[in-house]
Amino acid sequence: MRTMTVILAMLATGTLCAQTTSKVWTLDECVGYALEHNIEIKRQELGVSNSEIGLSESRWSYAPSLSAGSSYSISSGRVLDQTTYEFIENNVVGSSSASVSGSMQVFSGMRRHYALKKAKASMKASLADLESVRQNIEMNVTAAYLQILCDQENLSSAREMASMLESQMERIQTMVELGRVTEADLLQIRSQHYAALNDVAAAEGQCRLSRMELCQLLEIQDWKDFAIEPMEVNDSDGMQLFPITDSLAVESRPEYRSAEAGVEVARRNLQIARSAYYPTLSLSAGYGTSYSGARQKAVQNSDGTYRYEAYPFFRQYLDNGSSYLSLSLNIPIFSGMSTRNSVRRAKNASLDEQYALQSVREQLSREYEQALIEYQTSYRQYETAREQLAYAEEAVRMMTEKYNLGKIDFTSWNTAMTDLAKAKYDLGNTVYRNEMAKRTINIMRCL
Q1: Span 353-364, pLDDT tens digits
Q2: Rg, the chain, Cα only
Q3: Phi and psi of 281, rounded to 5°?
Q4: What is the reported pTM?
Q5: CA gap 123, 372 in Å, rounded
Q6: pLDDT confidence of 82, banded at 50, 70, 90?
């Protein structure tokens, strides 16, 4: 396969499509800037952050719950002493209590295990979706960048054609004055010159539009002074015409990995729904204490009698402490068929995700096949357009010589010029189509 480097640069300086600015952007800089500032990527990154939060919640669900509480109250009148459960008349009593408790689920039908697996699969799906968005942005930016270069090349060709017609118009003016050609030939070439100027204006407008579209992808508002750096585009970089089917290219795509993760999430949802059939076992423990301002401490005297003294706050907290440990078992017997219906819905969702995975595989396979066909087609068109341009340039050279000698009429010469303009336009477009097709395939193959 022959290699030919096509240098893509503007021939004129200070034009609308190649303005002198403080910064000239390369393709890599445009892609990097878009990946950093694009709104869709930022939104998808928030989705990844939410998936990370969900994964953290699933991991911490294995940890026991722990809580503590304390209260203090003042009562008057006929008051119930919470420590002795005796009523006290016409008194103001302060009371306090404190407690700490914890609980954990020993067994829940493997619900937490499946929930953790689901969170991990959701995380994979979010990362794959983020990669998919990044790939789409990269392809869109690359296409917009190459479109600008293509439009610049078309503008350069249009200007070159207008300049050539202007030079030929001056020559024909001289020939009219010498009586070698008729006034009609001069009028015709003037008409062709104004048509060429119209093509230049249209090409300049297209340059503005393509530059604005790229700036929109980059989230750049000031697109009027935006300029890109010319790049070298090779008709071949050693890339072979790959087979039409390539399962590795399909399975490496983030869209496919996201669909695979979706199947995994649906499978875990089914397992979580089925876990409702199983009993749950919970363990809980706690410690509590209390204080009452009305309570007094009985102290035995040496003679066997008792006297009552004040009962300090912290001493009551130590003496009134109590703890508990409980184990509870909950066995589901009948839930109005809600568990069965949840399982059925989860089964349907799982089957739907499998169908979606198959659909994504077929779609990605078609996209990859279309990209390969586009590459093959554009490359063959490039080879044809290159030969066409060579013959068109030679034909114009010969026709111009014959026309200057008066051997052919203006119509024949104009036809050759039209064919040359078309050949240049076709070559420029096929070059960029071929380059975009190659880059698309490389992105699809994650190269």
Answers
A1: 999 999 999 999
A2: 41
A3: -125, 125
A4: 0.76
A5: 32
A6: low
